[in-house]
Design goal:
The complex is a heterodimer. Chain A is of the alpha/beta class. Helices cover 60% and strands 14% of the residues of chain A. Helices cover 35% and strands 26% of the residues of chain B. Chain B is globular. The chains are: A alpha/beta, B alpha/beta.
Chain lengths: 111, 297
């Protein structure tokens, strides 16, 4: 499935977490159904980290890197936005790793 | 004739004294309702236009609390800058000078429901002005992105419906720059950080914590903590300036050097002022090599 972000958001800007959530829900549904999905950034002029955290970063709460690499593909993204996406991915991995360690620590304390 | 008269000081600039005045005014104004209030500019001979974002937000709050606001005695020295950025028009102050938009970013409040409109506004207000230095597409894009990181942060974390902004250009050949202020009267950074960390940090400590990469007060399954880092990176490359005021904290960053001052009065919200240098059209150089999009997760 090819998802054109501009068409979904009806905007050439992808700025807010709520816009990100629209895209997240589409991605999540496809991956949960074992289908692959391509995110098309064509026509998007401005992207924020807030949007990408919500659309993509959250996926790491449910899926591993290998699952995402096989199911999710990125197309027509300018280099600077791709650099931002990579930072968001790096940050999301660290965040969920920390969160997992934190939760495991809590479980250990309250077992 | 009026219940209260608020005197705007002789000089109102984006510095400790200016923000101290705004903090005191913002805090006191929360206590006013159903009063007639004179905003007296008689003694004011200098006001940096970007500060109209803060003053305008405070005045709108007063109006929402059923106060009647009357702007009075605007002097010739400040008339132009207050007229050009739309501030006087917004608060129904009659004036008869021609209005030129070229040296200001208009006073405006945002809720980001219409993202394209918000982007077009800043695109035109920042880059569409006569006499603006030419800037690379990448630099323009990086600036717009950082502006929206600020706006989204304000709306997401402060819990307010709107963020207010206003800006002023200084276009002379010597050090051309733009100063833009964003403000919300919502939850302070201090309150958010202390709730998140379960600590009792002061305003300065809380702002400094929020500025560190990866730190976010979001809970749950959504990571964050990149927006303010991107903003700092942009201003570092641009040789610009970042000021943040929230609670009793005032933090200023120039060339990665952080200066902090404690305010006597808490600001009941958050102010972010950015100063962008406009003299270097290619300040934001990006790697032009195509990057791989496969297996990036």
């Amino acid at each position: 499935m090819l998802v054109n972000i501009k068409e979904i958001l009806n905007s050439d800007s992808a700025l807010t977490p709520s816009s990100g959530e629209l895209i997240y829900n589409i991605i999540e549904e496809e991956i949960a159904s074992k289908r692959s999905i391509s995110l098309d950034f064509k026509g998007i002029e401005i992207i924020t980290s807030a949007f990408l955290n919500s659309a993509v970063g959250r996926l790491y709460s449910k899926y591993s890197s290998s699952e995402l690499n096989s199911a999710l593909h990125i197309v027509n993204i300018p280099n600077d936005d791709l650099q931002l996406l990579k930072k968001v991915i790096e940050r999301a991995k660290a965040y969920f790793k920390d969160q997992k360690s934190f939760n495991e620590g809590l479980e250990g304390k309250f077992d | 004739m009026y219940d209260i008269s608020i005197a705007i000081p002789e000089s109102l600039q984006s510095d400790f004294i200016g923000y101290s005045f705004m903090s005191k005014l913002a805090g006191e104004s929360l206590l006013h309702s159903k009063l007639s209030i004179k905003i007296d500019f008689q003694n004011c001979s200098l006001i940096e236009g970007n500060l109209c974002a803060i003053l305008g937000n405070i005045l709108e709050g007063l109006i929402e609390r059923d106060n009647i606001i009357d702007i009075a005695n605007v002097t010739p020295a400040t008339l132009r800058s207050l007229a050009n950025n739309g501030f006087l028009e917004k608060f129904n102050y009659p004036y008869s000078v021609p209005k030129y938009h070229t040296n200001s970013v208009q006073f405006k409040k945002f809720n980001l429901n219409d993202e394209t409109r918000a982007k077009d506004f800043f695109d035109s207000e920042l880059f569409g002005k006569e006499g603006m230095p030419q800037m690379s597409v990448a630099a323009k894009k990086a600036i717009l992105r950082s502006i929206f990181e600020i706006c989204v942060n304000a709306i997401t974390h402060a819990g307010c419906e709107y963020v207010y902004c206003c800006g002023q250009f200084f276009k002379g050949n010597n050090n051309p720059r733009a100063t833009i202020t964003f403000v919300d009267l919502g939850k302070t950074i201090t309150a958010n950080v202390n709730r998140h960390l379960k600590l009792l940090l002061n305003g300065i400590e809380a702002i400094k914590w929020a500025l560190q990469e990866g730190n976010t007060t979001k809970f749950g399954d959504e990571p964050g903590g990149l927006g303010l880092k991107l903003l700092q990176d942009l201003l570092f490359y641009n040789k610009g300036k970042l000021q943040m005021i929230s609670g009793n904290g005032f933090v200023e960053i120039i060339d990665k050097i952080i200066t902090t001052t404690e305010l006597q009065y808490d600001f009941p919200g958050t102010i972010v002022t950015i100063e962008l240098k406009l003299g270097d059209p290619n300040f934001y150089i990006l790697d032009t090599e195509d990057e791989e999009t496969q297996n990036i997760f």
